[in-house]
UniProtKB/TrEMBL annotation:
Native source organism of the sequence: Zalophus californianus (California sealion)
SUPFAM superfamilies the UniProt entry points to: NAD(P)-binding Rossmann-fold domains
Domain spans labelled Thioester reductase (TE): 15-284
Highest taxon of source: Eukaryota
Domain (Fatty acyl-CoA reductase C-terminal) ranges: 357-448
Protein name: Fatty acyl-CoA reductase
Length: 515
């Protein structure tokens, strides 16, 4: 029997960010391994015209929860969706709901965050810092609370190259930042943002670092742990391989590459691609929840959930495998033939941006205009290149994260728990994982039918022929212009033509002789 699964039985668990990528997988695993848990409270806000209940209904009816519904048929009775907006005071939770949360919660998993790199500092602070502080204040009023698990990111200290499982302080105290956001206007915040984030690349990583400081400062006598995952990708094994449901991290870029929009990126092919499957992060999170509640470590422990130091893969290898998978299972209606090239050289990268990204978009828009349609490709390309510019920081560097606490925890687990809550990335086969990831993107994000693969392959063949035709035409035009302008080019041309003529004459003469 798994000790971790048994621990969560009968427990009341509060999850923030349960409608997000990681939150859904966390809920799924909890219900699948501990169907006897008492209740999962989730803080949900209405979104995109859906009420909180409709959102929960949609999650439970998704493919991700198919296994859970077999194991735990009354799963819908065990989820309590609580209307909440983390941007508001007391999260806008009703008095009755707040009372229930405070008196019943045993474990808190705090996953909610804004993960947008370019979020306005005021909003990023509100969600990643102030909301964390408020949640900790709530947690301190929960008499039955056994553990509070905060999800941060391995990149919260990406301004360093070697990162230990400790909290690194930011120069300005989070409390001062929170206060100043209340009275400074947007223009001033915009002005001071670069100074505050310093050598971090964006407001996301900066506010996640501040969030960690808040956790440390507000910990009081709570049992707290922080988990720092690196770049979270599709599921590795559970509940099935390749599940993914948003465009964050590499997923959106893999789509852009598979559809032929993005063919090259400025990135170091040998830099470590520190991807970590979402089910691995969830397994570690649940194991940490158990360990923190049962063993009550004296200080706040930080766990790095990374792959680079134990089972490294680099961007070049990843791009190669992504491309190899596109050959086997191409995406439908590609714009151009896929490529996945990482180039470290800025000038080469700018050249490919112009030739391989912007020029085809302009040509296609011209074609759309000619055929009386609205041009759109240049706009798509501009947004894509903006996204690429934001991730370039992360694909041009390598980091080293120490994983002593994570390895210590692994050694504390029983063999059964090591199997059920496996977070040992040494067992991950990258080639297999990436293939399943691309397949998962095709199935669950693009919702493309596998029966369409032969047609998609045909389409790629047509694109290849168009590509050859286009290049040949381009070459002939360029050559024609060159001959018209340069005596040297004309001489070379006459030499080639006369050489071919002589060769053909010789070939014809020798074949006549044989007859
Ligand atoms: N994805 C990744 O690569 C990595 C993620 N992380 C961390 O993991 C955690 C989870 O990330 P992930 O699941 O990928 O992120 P998602 O963007 O998928 O999910 C974010 C969650 O936060 C919720 N949320 C955001 N704003 C509010 C609000 N105002 N009120 C209530 N809920 C809100 C979202 O709710 P809604 O659905 O309503 O928007 C959603 O459930 C985050 O803390 C992130 O920093 C760390 C490393 C890598």
């Amino acid at each position: 029997m798994s000790m971790i699964a048994a621990f969560y039985s009968g427990k009341s668990i509060l999850i923030t960010g349960a409608t997000g990528f990681m939150g859904k997988v966390l809920m799924e695993k909890l219900f699948r391994t501990s169907p006897d848990l008492k209740v999962i409270y989730i803080l949900v806000r209405p979104k995109a015209g859906q009420t909180t209940q409709q959102r929960v209904f949609q999650i439970l009816n998704s493919k991700l929860f198919e296994k859970v519904k077999e194991i735990c048929p009354n799963v819908h009775e065990k989820i309590r969706a609580i209307y909440a907006d983390l941007n508001q005071n007391d999260f806008a939770i009703s008095k009755e709901d707040m009372q229930e949360l405070l008196s019943c919660t045993n474990i808190v998993f705090h996953c909610a965050a804004t993960v947008r790199f370019d979020d306005h500092l005021r909003h990023a602070v509100q969600l990643n810092v102030t909301a964390t502080q408020q949640l900790l204040i709530m947690a301190s009023q929960m008499p039955k609370l056994e553990a509070f698990i905060h999800i941060s990111t391995a990149f919260s200290n990406c301004n360093l190259t070697h990162i230990d499982e400790v909290i690194y302080p930011c120069p300005v105290e989070p409390k001062k930042i929170i206060d100043s956001m209340e009275w400074l206007d947007d223009a001033i915040i915009d002005e001071i943002t670069p100074k505050l984030i310093g050598d971090r690349p964006n407001t996301y990583t900066y506010t996640k670092a501040l969030g960690e400081m808040v956790v440390q400062q507000e910990s009081r006598n709570l049992n707290i742990a922080i988990i720092r995952p690196s770049i979270v990708g599709a599921t590795w094994q559970e509940p099935f391989p390749g599940w993914v449901d948003n465009l964050n991290g590499p997923s959106g870029l893999i789509i852009a590459a598979g559809k032929g929009f993005l063919r090259s990126i400025r990135g170091a092919p040998m830099a470590v691609a520190d991807l970590i499957p979402v089910d691995t992060v969830v397994n570690l999170t649940l194991a940490v929840g158990w360990y923190t509640a049962v063993h009550r470590p004296k200080s706040t422990l930080i766990y790095h959930c990374t792959s680079g130091n134990l089972n490294p893969c680099n961007w070049g290898k990843m791009g190669f495998q992504v491309l190899a998978t596109f050959e086997k299972v191409p995406f439908e209606r590609a714009f151009r033939r896929p490529n996945a090239d990482f180039t470290a050289n800025t000038i080469t990268s700018q050249y490919w941006n112009a030739v391989s990204h912007r020029a085809p978009a302009i040509i296609y828009d011209f074609y759309l205009r000619l055929t009386g349609r609205k041009p759109r490709m240049t706009k798509i390309m501009n947004r894509l290149l903006k996204t690429v510019s934001m991730i370039e920081y992360f694909v041009n560097r390598s980091w080293e994260w120490s994983t002593y606490n994570t390895e210590m925890l692994m050694s504390e687990l029983s063999p059964e728990d090591q199997r059920v809550f496996n977070f040992d990335v040494r067992q991950l086969n990258w080639l297999e994982y990436i293939e399943n990831y691309v397949l998962g993107i095709k199935k669950y994000l693009l919702k493309e039918d596998m029966a369409g693969i032969p047609e998609a392959k045909q389409h790629l063949k047509r694109l290849r022929n168009i590509h050859y035709l286009f290049n040949t035409a381009l070459f002939l035009i360029a050559w024609r212009l060159l001959i018209a302008r340069s005596q040297m080019a004309r001489n070379v041309w006459f030499f080639i033509v006369s050489f071919c003529y002589k060769f053909l004459s010789y070939f014809r003469a020798s074949s006549t002789l044989k007859v």
